[in-house]
Design goal:
The protein has helices at residues 2-28, 47-59, 249-256, 276-281, 299-303, 339-345; strands at 63-73, 79-90, 96-100, 110-116, 121-125, 127-132, 137-141, 164-169, 177-192, 195-203, 215-217, 223-230, 240-244, 269-275, 287-294, 310-314, 317-321, 325-329, 332-333, 352-359, 362-369. The protein has 377 residues and is α+β, with helices and mostly antiparallel strands. A hairpin with a 2-residue loop joins strand 18 (325-329) and strand 19. The longest helix has 27 residues, at 2-28.
Length: 377
């Protein structure tokens, strides 16, 4: 009986050893075991991804990082450097760079520009060529050793909500950051340190501190705006604003002409677009711009444009009433609220703005002579 028990025990040990070795060699051996993860099959790029990559590869080399330093006096009369950073982009191969006025901090003691790219990582001191404080724009220049890549300027007057856009800049000092989104709205007005910035492009492309002055691009890589502001005091929440590039072109022309070509000054009136049932309720023509605010010292008032004289209640709104109702601008019928700003963007100092208005049941024509806006070299 003892011999039989010994044999059974031996056989059990041999079986257990064989099972253990088999398990180790077939299931747990590093040579033949299946991995703990799944290898993904390679996927082709989508057309949208190819466009993003193509635009970034071409445009990012023309985007720069700007550091401005202003010397300020501290509490104990010591001189303390105050530094700010932002973005900008080259507009020609001679080193001219467009950015925001607030990026260079106004009267900056020193402006340093870093060129970033696969073939160069260089730093230059920049000089200010001209500024447009009202539109928060500045043109600066560096003296490069050779030709530099630059970005073409597009058309910001034919934009549509929903159009795809790409933003490149240096948020929080992270150079060459690309974000994408769409145009969320047009014609937004936002408050800046120097007043109201009207007719801004709103986008959900992520814009953060440090993006200011960088380009907002369309699918072809053309600049349609200058990234300027975000909504709220912190980082991106999906609401950013860019200055339409049409508002920057007069500054570039101003520099190109040596200061002779000046941007037209705002004619001094504000309007709201009225159409449909609101126009019918006010017994006005089907669509137009109602003058709701008029600067008595502005060019429009001097030309004879009338502003509101009282307020009326329309639905849930109090509306300034009694002002002229603009039907046409430079011969073009008013079909949306952006026509006035589109027309003014193309004007230079000394140009005329032709208005056809509805007043007291009659059509009246007014010609506004546009004065010169303050821009300085």
């Amino acid at each position: 009986m003892r011999r039989w028990t010994f044999r059974l025990g031996t056989m059990a040990l041999l079986f257990l050893a064989a099972f253990t070795l088999g398990t180790i060699s077939t299931e747990w051996s590093s040579d033949s075991a299946d991995p703990f993860w799944t290898e993904a099959a390679g996927s082709d790029l989508t057309d949208d991804e190819r466009t993003n990559i193509d635009v970034y590869d071409r445009a990012s080399r023309a985007v720069v990082n700007i550091t401005s330093t202003v010397l300020q006096q501290g509490w104990f009369f010591q001189v303390v450097p105050n530094r700010g950073t932002g973005s900008g982009f080259l507009v020609d191969n001679e080193g001219r760079i467009l950015t925001n006025y607030h990026v260079i901090q106004g009267n900056s003691a020193q402006i340093e520009v870093n060129l970033l790219g696969s073939e160069r990582d260089e730093s230059y001191e920049a000089q200010v060529l001209a500024v447009d404080e009202l539109n928060d724009l500045a043109l600066i220049q560096i003296n490069p050793d050779g030709d530099l890549p630059w970005l073409p300027l597009g058309d910001s007057e034919s934009l549509r909500v929903g159009r795809k856009v790409l933003a490149i800049g240096n948020p929080f000092g992270l150079e060459g950051t690309l974000t994408t989104g769409v145009i969320s709205s047009l014609g937004r007005s936002i408050q800046s340190d120097n007043g109201v910035l009207p007719e801004m492009i709103q986008t959900d492309a992520a814009i953060n501190p440090g993006n200011s002055g960088g380009p907002l691009l369309d699918n072809s890589g053309a600049v349609i705006g200058v990234n300027t502001a975000i909504y709220g005091p912190g980082g991106n929440i999906g609401i950013g604003f860019a200055m339409p590039i049409s508002r920057a072109k007069p500054l570039l022309e101003f520099v190109r002409s040596g200061g002779e070509a000046r941007k037209a000054k705002d004619p001094g009136f504000r309007t709201i677009y009225v159409s449909g049932r609101y126009a019918r309720a006010l017994e006005l023509p089907p669509s137009g711009l109602l003058v709701v605010e008029l600067d008595p010292n502005g060019a429009a008032a001097q030309a004879g444009l009338r502003g509101p004289s009282r307020e009326i209640v329309l639905g849930n709104y109090r509306v300034p009433w009694g002002g002229d109702f603009i039907l046409e601008i430079d011969g073009r019928p008013v079909a949306n609220g952006r026509l006035l700003q589109q027309s003014l963007a193309l004007k230079k100092a000394g140009d005329e703005l032709a208005l056809k208005v509805f007043r007291d049941g009659e059509e009246v024509e007014i010609v506004v002579k546009l004065a010169s806006q303050s821009m300085r070299l």
